[in-house]
Automatic annotation (TrEMBL):
Pfam families: Glyco_transf_4, Glycos_transf_1. Residues 11-180 form the Glycosyltransferase subfamily 4-like N-terminal domain. Residues 189-348 form the Glycosyl transferase family domain. PANTHER family: SULFOQUINOVOSYL TRANSFERASE SQD2, TRANSFERASE. It comes from Hymenobacter aranciens. NCBIfam families: thiol_BshA. InterPro entries: Glyco_trans_1, Glyco_trans_4-like_N, Glycosyltransferase_grp1, Thiol_BshA. This is N-acetyl-alpha-D-glucosaminyl L-malate synthase BshA.
Length: 374
C-alpha cells in the first residue's frame, strides 16, 4: 500500500510509535510517506520505501499563531494526490485528525477518496482533548475517521466515557523491536556507575507533571535507605531542574545521575535492575515495555493502561497513584536476590507478546478495512 503517516516528529511516545510503525511497514514492502514539520528523530536511515515530506508553515506579520493545521492539510492533499496514497494514518488527535478531515474533504472535491485512520495515544484524550477549547473538534474528527485505534483498552474506555463517539474503536497496543531492545553486555558501564555492586534503578520520561518524577526520587531515597542503590534518569522536560533541586534537598544527589535525552536508551536499560513508572496517567507505557524487553521489571502505578502491560507479582508490581511507601516496599521485594531473576525473566517474556511482527499486521488489517468501507 501507499501509506501517509502524520505524527509529532519528536521524542514523545506517539511520534516514536508512528515512526517505528512506518519503518516496519516499509520493511514489509509498503511505501510510507511521513508528513511532519521536521524529520522524525528515529527516521535516521535510508530505505527505498520511506519518504519524508516537510510541512512548511509560512509566517506573516498578521499571524500571531502561524496556521500549522492549514499548512498540514494542504501538504496532505498534495502528497495524497501526487503520491497516490491509499490511506492516511494520523497519530495524536490534535490537530492531526481535524487536518486530515479537511484534507479528505478537499480531495473529495477533486474526485479522490482517501480513508483516514486515527490513532489516539493518550494525552490527546486524557489531558488536552478533554479541554473545552478542543473537545468539539476532537469528537467530530474522531467520528469522521474511517478507522479509529487506541493503544490500550483503558484508553478506549476513556474515549467512550468522555467523548460522544459513534465509531468502533480497535485496540492496537504499542509494540517493540526485540532485536534492538534486548539485554546487551555493558558490564564495563555498570562497573563504572555502580562500582560497589549497588542496585540500579532507572526512569525514562519527558519530565512532565503526569510522570510524577518527584515520586521517582522519593521511591529511590526510600530504597537507598535499606540497600545500596543508584538512580539513572533519562530524558528531559519541564520538571528537570525542579528534580535536580529535590535530589539535593533529599540529600541523594550523589547517587542520582541525570543523563538527559539519550538515543541508545537500550544500553542503559541493559545495566538496570528496576524501572520506576509512578505516572498519574499512562495510556500504555511504551517506556516500561522498552525496559521489560531489556529484562528490567517494572514498579509502577495502576493508572490507565499500565496494568494491561505490567502484571502484578509477575513482571513487576503495581501500586495506587502517589503511594510512595508501597512502591518502596514493592521495589525492595522485586530487587531482592531471591525474586529478581524470576521478575527479569517474566518481564522479557511479556515484552515478547508485543513484538513488532505480531502487532504491525493489525494496522495493515485496519488500513484494508478502512479502504474497503470508506
Ligand atoms: O508519554 C508521553 O507523555 C508522550 C505521549 C505521546 O503522545 O507522545 O505518550 C503517550 O503515547 C505513548 C505511545 O502510544 C504511550 O505509550 C504513553 O503511555 C502515552 N503517554 C501518556 O498517556 C501519558
Amino acid at each position: 500500500m501507499n501509506i501517509g503517516i502524520v505524527c509529532y516528529p519528536t521524542f514523545g511516545g506517539s511520534g516514536v510509535v508512528a515512526t517505528e510503525l512506518g519503518k516496519a511497514l516499509a520493511q514489509r514492502g509498503h511505501r510510507v510517506h511521513f508528513i511532519t514539520y521536521s524529520q522524525p528523530v528515529r527516521l535516521d536511515f535510508f530505505n527505498e520505501n520511506l519518504f519524508y515530506h516537510e510541512v512548511y508553515v509560512p509566517t506573516y506579520p498578521l499571524f500571531q499563531f502561524p496556521p500549522y493545521e492549514s499548512a498540514l492539510a494542504s501538504k496532505m492533499v498534495d502528497i495524497a494526490q501526487n503520491e497516490n496514497l491509499d490511506v492516511l494514518h494520523v497519530h495524536y488527535a490534535i490537530p492531526h485528525a481535524s487536518a486530515a478531515f479537511l484534507a479528505k474533504q478537499i480531495l473529495r472535491s477533486r474526485g479522490i477518496n482517501i480513508p483516514v485512520v486515527t490513532t489516539l495515544h493518550g494525552t490527546d484524550i486524557t489531558l488536552v482533548g478533554k479541554d473545552a477549547s478542543y473537545e468539539p473538534v476532537v469528537t467530530f474528527s474522531i467520528n469522521q475517521s474511517d478507522g479509529v485505534t487506541t493503544v490500550s483498552a483503558d484508553l478506549r474506555r476513556e474515549t467512550y466515557e468522555y467523548f460522544a463517539i459513534e465509531k468502533d474503536i480497535q485496540v492496537i497496543p504499542n509494540f517493540i523491536d526485540l532485536k534492538r531492545f534486548k539485554k546487551q553486555d555493558k558490564s564495563h558501564f555498570r562497573a563504572a556507575i555502580a562500582p560497589e555492586g549497588e542496585k540500579l534503578l532507572i526512569h525514562t520520561s519527558n519530565f512532565r507533571t503526569v510522570k510524577r518524577v518527584e515520586d521517582v526520587l522519593r521511591i529511590f531515597c526510600g530504597v537507598r535507605k535499606v540497600i545500596p542503590a543508584k538512580l539513572l534518569l533519562v530524558g528531559d522536560g519541564p520538571d528537570r531542574s525542579r528534580m535536580e533541586k529535590l535530589a539535593r534537598d533529599l540529600d541523594c544527589q550523589r547517587d542520582i545521575r541525570f543523563l538527559g535525552k539519550l538515543e541508545a536508551v537500550e544500553e542503559v536499560l541493559s545495566v538496570s535492575d528496576l524501572f520506576l513508572m509512578p505516572s498519574e496517567n499512562e495510556s500504555f507505557g511504551l517506556a516500561a515495555l522498552e525496559a521489560m524487553a531489556c529484562e528490567v521489571p517494572v514498579v509502577s502505578t495502576n493508572a490507565g493502561g499500565i496494568p494491561e502491560l505490567n502484571t502484578h507479582g509477575v513482571t513487576g508490581m503495581l501500586s495506587d497513584i502517589g503511594d510512595v511507601a508501597d512502591m518502596v516496599e514493592n521495589s525492595l521485594f522485586v530487587l531482592s536476590d531471591e525474586n529478581l531473576p524470576r521478575f527479569k525473566e517474566a518481564a522479557r517474556a511479556r515484552a515478547e507478546e508485543f513484538a513488532v511482527d505480531r502487532i504491525v499486521p493489525l494496522y495493515e488489517e485496519c488500513y484494508q478495512k478502512a479502504v474497503a468501507t470508506s
